[in-house]
Amino acid sequence: MLGFLKNPVVITAEINMNLMALIVMGLISRLWGLSYPRAVVFDEVYYGQFVSLYMKRIFFVDDSGPPFGHMLLALGGYLGGFDGNFLWNRIGAEYSMNVPVWSLRLLPALAGALCVPLAYQILVELQFSHCAALGAALLVLLENSLITQSRFMLLESILIFFILLAVLSYLKFYNLQRHSSFSGSWWFWLLLTGVACSCAVGVKYMGLFTYMLLLAVAGLHFWHMIGDQNLSNVSLMCHFLARGLALIIIPVAMYLSFFYVHLTLLYRSGPHDQIMTSAFQASLEGGLARITQGQPLEVAYGSQITLRNVLGKPVQCWLHSHKNTYPIRYENGRGSSHQQQVTCYPFKDVNNWWIVKDPGMQQLVVSNPPRPVRHGHIVQLVHGITTRYLNTHDVAAPLSPHSQEVSCYIDYNISMPAQNLWRVEIVNRESDTDVWKTILSEVRFVHVNTSAVLKASGFIGASLPEWGYRQLEVVGEKLSKGYHQSMVWNVEEHRYGKSQEQKEREVELHSPTQMDISKNLSFMAKFTELQWKILTLKNEDTEHKYSSSALDWITMDTNIAYWLHPTSGAQIHLLGNVVTWTSANVAALVYMCLSLWYLIRRRRKIYDIPEEAWQLWVSAGGICVGGWAVNYLPFFLMEKTLFLYHYLPALTFQILLVPIVLQHLSDHLCRSLLLKSMFSALIVAWFSSVYLVYCTFSPVTYGEPSLSVTELKDLRWKDSWNILIRKQ
């Protein structure tokens, strides 16, 4: 039985030394001197703030994209023991000793290093020679811009890594399709394609471009499978379901999981949660949750409430009134009702409190048992401090003359009766008998007499003059003008009124609530709201010193100064390898011209290259030229501040195209031995120039050694480059 022990156990493994060498060189080029400079470099000032918030578990919203990339950067900080205590307020600020610089920059550097072997593997899977694959990897290795971007706490290198991993995984899956469908390795690479696509989208929405490209390629390949008579209907259905699972369902599930982890980690209130709804804010620890804890859930007649406008733009604000009245005449000569002002006030204040009153009764307290207000009920809103009723009438609003003025009614004993009845309409109701609920219900107040809707002025951001204390305008807007979120309000703070006397009620309005209820939102509700905010929230796009247009990127007419040493001439710039960028552009042009030539000739039944070579040429172009196009052309449609680093994913695909074109020219256009030898010599000379330019610009890629003024001027190969030179 133990006879098998007579012979030793032998494990045989094949090691691709090219691949191993590329991994080592990639790690050296990206990890060498990673902690230098020990100062904030360019957008580290931006991403570092989010890392600190993760460390402190404080909620934030970043309108630049999903949270997965931020979480990876935070993982580096967590592994390095970062406590989040650093003030990310300016580029060039020296890091304090508690900031693990090497750890924070590690994951982007590793991702950048692994892009080198991925480039090699992609060309191998595209059925090109190992020599061409090695050339592609070395071009990525020696590309100064990719090195610079991967050595700091930035997201582009991570994005490019997942993009290349998705492409490689799909190519491996497709090549296995021919002889081992539904095998373990087939499933592995198919599933990894979906995972990598999801991760790419989770890092930055730019990853969506490559994801769409791979879905299109997968759809085209499946279309060809449908025409294969050797495959049964059941087999085709299995292939379709497998692709749907791996390329759609799993990526969507993973994308949701990124937000689930994000929201689980960030459970504390912070400065960014003010743009979220009251319900979302109340689900966070501290902040609004501390204020609203213990509030009654159902709004009843006699309830004391504050009403927050759901839109939250340009700032969040609450329905507010004070004793001051509208001026008898405005600056433009129009008259007003001279009644008490009603505004939307962007701060919490005792004058934000209102009492929900039953029009048929005089009492301003909650009965026992409470009588809840439901959808469609008629109410009066009484200002808590001044006891005047919310009113609107056919008088033009101060800043929006086509809308009605909203006021708190003062009886001047003239022919202007009170019009203070409002119908409660719950916008997000499940039935017409829904109860008006604290925080959860989004309501409109429709004026019974005029059918106008209470609205934070449609003239978004309109501030009243000095007589209105620069507060925001509130108007009555006709429903016929359409629905808008500025017409929707929710109860944020709420208590059951118990004091009928005004003096006692004023004391009550300053008191905390007592009753306990839970207002936890479901994950999907929080995800939907956060996703919508990310997609619609727009920061003020200002012109940046180093911003550029998409046209500037192709010829690298721009650069970005990332860091400057405070005393010496040492500096770091985002600058590409000029030879590589030029070669990539030429390769793309040659590819498109040759493809057009081949297509015209094939239309005339003239076949210049074998069919197998043609299919290889087309498939390589679909990946490389397609990858370049989908990652570059959309920027011409974007209304945002653009920087050179936005071009790096597109550039990576363009770099992969260079050795593909070179091998094609060598194999099919250099027909004689002499031409092949001359072409090979030119390639060696060209590649030597790539290495020489890499070495020339490495001082501004790595930030050392420090260069003299003369040396810095020599690096300004283009007048449009902004190389920083200190005045002597």
UniProtKB/TrEMBL annotation:
<feature type="transmembrane region" description="Helical">
    <location>
        <begin position="612"/>
        <end position="630"/>
    </location>
</feature>
<feature type="domain" description="MIR">
    <location>
        <begin position="370"/>
        <end position="427"/>
    </location>
</feature>
<keyword id="KW-1133">Transmembrane helix</keyword>
<feature type="domain" description="MIR">
    <location>
        <begin position="296"/>
        <end position="359"/>
    </location>
</feature>
<keyword id="KW-0472">Membrane</keyword>
<feature type="transmembrane region" description="Helical">
    <location>
        <begin position="100"/>
        <end position="120"/>
    </location>
</feature>
<feature type="transmembrane region" description="Helical">
    <location>
        <begin position="674"/>
        <end position="694"/>
    </location>
</feature>
<dbReference type="InterPro" id="IPR003342">
    <property type="entry name" value="ArnT-like_N"/>
</dbReference>
<comment type="pathway">
    <text>Protein modification; protein glycosylation.</text>
</comment>
<dbReference type="InterPro" id="IPR036300">
    <property type="entry name" value="MIR_dom_sf"/>
</dbReference>
<dbReference type="GO" id="GO:0005789">
    <property type="term" value="C:endoplasmic reticulum membrane"/>
</dbReference>
<dbReference type="Pfam" id="PF16192">
    <property type="entry name" value="PMT_4TMC"/>
</dbReference>
<keyword id="KW-0256">Endoplasmic reticulum</keyword>
<feature type="transmembrane region" description="Helical">
    <location>
        <begin position="68"/>
        <end position="88"/>
    </location>
</feature>
<dbReference type="InterPro" id="IPR027005">
    <property type="entry name" value="PMT-like"/>
</dbReference>
<feature type="transmembrane region" description="Helical">
    <location>
        <begin position="154"/>
        <end position="174"/>
    </location>
</feature>
<comment type="similarity">
    <text>Belongs to the glycosyltransferase 39 family.</text>
</comment>
<feature type="transmembrane region" description="Helical">
    <location>
        <begin position="9"/>
        <end position="32"/>
    </location>
</feature>
<dbReference type="Pfam" id="PF02366">
    <property type="entry name" value="PMT"/>
</dbReference>
<keyword id="KW-0677">Repeat</keyword>
<dbReference type="InterPro" id="IPR032421">
    <property type="entry name" value="PMT_4TMC"/>
</dbReference>
<dbReference type="InterPro" id="IPR016093">
    <property type="entry name" value="MIR_motif"/>
</dbReference>
<dbReference type="Pfam" id="PF02815">
    <property type="entry name" value="MIR"/>
</dbReference>
<keyword id="KW-0328">Glycosyltransferase</keyword>
<feature type="transmembrane region" description="Helical">
    <location>
        <begin position="642"/>
        <end position="662"/>
    </location>
</feature>
<feature type="transmembrane region" description="Helical">
    <location>
        <begin position="240"/>
        <end position="261"/>
    </location>
</feature>
<protein>
    <recommendedName>
        <fullName>Protein O-mannosyl-transferase 1</fullName>
        <ecNumber>2.4.1.109</ecNumber>
    </recommendedName>
</protein>
<feature type="transmembrane region" description="Helical">
    <location>
        <begin position="186"/>
        <end position="219"/>
    </location>
</feature>
<keyword id="KW-0808">Transferase</keyword>
<dbReference type="GO" id="GO:0004169">
    <property type="term" value="F:dolichyl-phosphate-mannose-protein mannosyltransferase activity"/>
</dbReference>
<keyword id="KW-0812">Transmembrane</keyword>
<feature type="transmembrane region" description="Helical">
    <location>
        <begin position="578"/>
        <end position="600"/>
    </location>
</feature>
